[in-house]
Amino acid sequence: MGRPKKNKASSSAYIPKKIQSLEGAFDILSDTQPLWNALTRRLNKVSRVYGFSRVETPVVEDRYLYESFYRQQPHILESLLCYEGGGKAIAIRPAILPSVLRSYYQHKVFDKSTASKWCYTGMVAKMEDGGLRTDYEFGFEIFGQFTHLSEAQVIGAVWDFLTSLGLGDLMIEINNIGSEESQEVYENTLQDFLAGKKYQLCDDCNEHLSGRILNVFRCNNLDCQALLAEAPAILDFLDQESHKHFTSVLEALDELGIPYQLNPLYAGPQGVSKTNVVLKYKYKGETKVIGEGGYHDGLIQNLCGKAYPCFGFSGSLNRMHEFLEQHKVTVEKEYKNDVFLVPLGELASKKSLRLFRDLTRQQISVHDHFGDGGVKNQLKLAETYKAPIALIIGQKEAMDERVILRDVKSGMQEIISYDKIVEEVKKRLGK
Description:
Strand content: 15-25%
Number of strands: 16
Mean pLDDT: 88
Helix content: 25-40%
Largest sheet: 8 strands, mixed
CATH superfamily of the largest domain: Bira Bifunctional Protein, Domain 2
Distance between the termini: 79 Å
Shape: elongated
Number of helices: 17
Radius of gyration: 29 Å
């Protein structure tokens, strides 16, 4: 008897490669990462309280959007992830704000509403230091007819969101860099101040001398910071209207009880004007930026040729998540269900499926467990999920069209006919 022939199909069978996320990218799993769940849940709550409407924009845009938005920031354009598709140059968003401003103009929201308050979140990606860098951004933006009080509310929304987890070591720094006219006068003065000090500045700051000179204030080099501490403050160059407006913003923050530090040598990113604000935190002697805000009139003008009034703040939820982890903040998974279903057997599970539908149609939150498990274990789960009511259906109850209603806390239970169970549950829950 000859040797059995080898199965050619099995010898050449496809062996799947272990698929991993790209280096520099990350997943968000709210089921196993409760900190992320806490962040997004509280951000949504603050947004509702402050009256911000959620907006979603595409993760890809026409490259021209970013070429217009970042036309004075070539280093950002070089970091774009781009590809050709359908005859267009398409780019993955490195930030969400350009899309938000584009959306406001494209949909002519200014014709439909005198004032708009938007919030947004989403993934962004770009190439940085030779590798992929992704982030999860959040932001608040106001458009149209608004006052210094609305600016203070944006800052207040961000502050309430970040402090809602009970964290300290947070600081708000605020400044006003005035109108374009004020900036031009100040930049000439600053240029004169730094003219004989080029050799005391780092290479990056020397490059800023021939570009946007205010960027020297964004340098983290300690020697540059020490030199710039002696520089004239832009607040001394504000026009009367800008000075009055900034004073009103600070008074509004005082009224809201929001702590801040006036930093007359702080300037936001390119294109941001008037009120400039940055939110930082300290960890082991190192200061990190969570996000920045300011007027974006000039940026939206880069996109559409008209400077619509808009003010907002953009920040990094990923940086916030790191902050929480560094401070060893822990949060419990949030379980909140009105009812816990306990089906026992195949027929009972089918009846429970219908009961699940009938309950949820009445806006009753239900945790269902259609897998295996005895009644004792499932009732323990009901306690874990903090459901006040457990509805038990066994084989007999399923055949008799009945349901056992159990008060999870007291253990008291009674049998109720199926046609009355939903109203009884609503009565017990006070709905």
